[in-house]
Amino acid sequence: MTMDYHIIWHQLQCTDLEPAIAFYEQLFGWTTRPEERTTYVHFYDGNDAIAGVMPQHGGGGPAQWGAHVGTSDIDAYCARAKAAGGKPLMPIMDIPHTGRLCPIADPGGAVLTAFQPSDLERKHWSTEQEVGHFCWFQLLCQDPAKSVAFYRDVVGWSAMALPMGDSIQHLFMAPGTGPEAAVGGAMQLPVPDAPDHFLPYVLVEDAGASVARAVELGGTMLCDSTPVPGYGRFAVLTDPEGAALAVFQPE
């Protein structure tokens, strides 16, 4: 699988590491490894690394989930992003034995991190459609047409508008693929003046049970289990620190 066009990693930034780890271990059954506490903590499903978690440096900013899009040439990616009106939030960072990355704010302010892994041939970059794995991302934005154009020019995604009730889902797809291979989408924010942001989705067996369990563990329900005709059900929650994510139960 080529790294380009795919969301290949997710990372949680939080204030208090241990309670955050405990919440997700109990919610999704993920595990962590004690020896990673002094370096970089991964969430695992069996032997598969699902995501990373790290404390906010300097304690600044809200807890949040972030997504990483794969690229085989991060220098060219950043150049395209700048030309299209994006703003790199830091110089490209080289992480030994891992790769190179750069978080970039799009013109609407949503942040997507470009990530060029050291191992471009790695078979599994958390892209499997399995329970407990991330399965989708949603860009919620004030100007979907502008956002779609930006990511078309920068990532290379093609897009297709799909009516969904009173909304329109703009599917993001790798070149040469169809809607069945969509990797994510963009939709109009329902709240005026709300900031653009990405919302990651985790595949679960029961969306209603998952959001109820999140509340039991100290999280908050933002949207109860809701049907998406022809696809399944989703729900949206926050963890105890306020980081938002969604769960999806396929039909």
Automatic annotation (TrEMBL):
It comes from the Bacteria. Residues 6-117, 133-250 form the VOC domain. Coiled coil: none annotated. This is 27 kDa antigen Cfp30B. Pfam families: Glyoxalase (PF00903), Glyoxalase_6 (PF18029). It comes from Saltatorellus ferox. InterPro entries: Anthracycline_SecMetBiosynth (IPR052164), Glyas_Bleomycin-R_OHBP_Dase (IPR029068), Glyas_Fos-R_dOase_dom (IPR004360), Glyoxalase_6 (IPR041581), VOC_core (IPR037523). PROSITE patterns: VOC.
